[in-house]
Amino acid sequence: MPAPRVRWADWGEDNIGVVDKGTWGARALCRSADPDALFCESAVQSQAKALCTGCPVRTECLAHALDQKIEHGIWGGMTERERRALLRRRPTVISWRRLLETARIEHNRQADENREPDGGLSQVS
Prior knowledge:
Oligomer: single chain
Number of helices: 5
Mean pLDDT: 79
Shape: globular
Distance between the termini: 66 Å
Strand content: under 5%
Low-confidence stretches: 1-21
Number of strands: 0
Order of helices and strands: HHHHH
């Protein structure tokens, strides 16, 4: 069955199908990408996943795909196979968005704690 010819960034946070400037889809790096590049198969998927590297809304995108159980395409840097495996490993997760946002906040908090108080500008004599 061929993948649908829909760009993922066409979907809003509420899954209505319209992206306005206030939603994460409007800030996605793949927003102007060719849909065929994101809904591909096999070895070409690694090229599509590379587009997600450094995307400012990668977490939101992945959470959306997991919460909506989207079956096709690259979302948040993961293939459909990778997302299915993750969903099988964590069947009790109710909100992937909440889980991933909480994990991001905790990661940022720990990173802040590990920084030197002066921002690493001190010199050793």
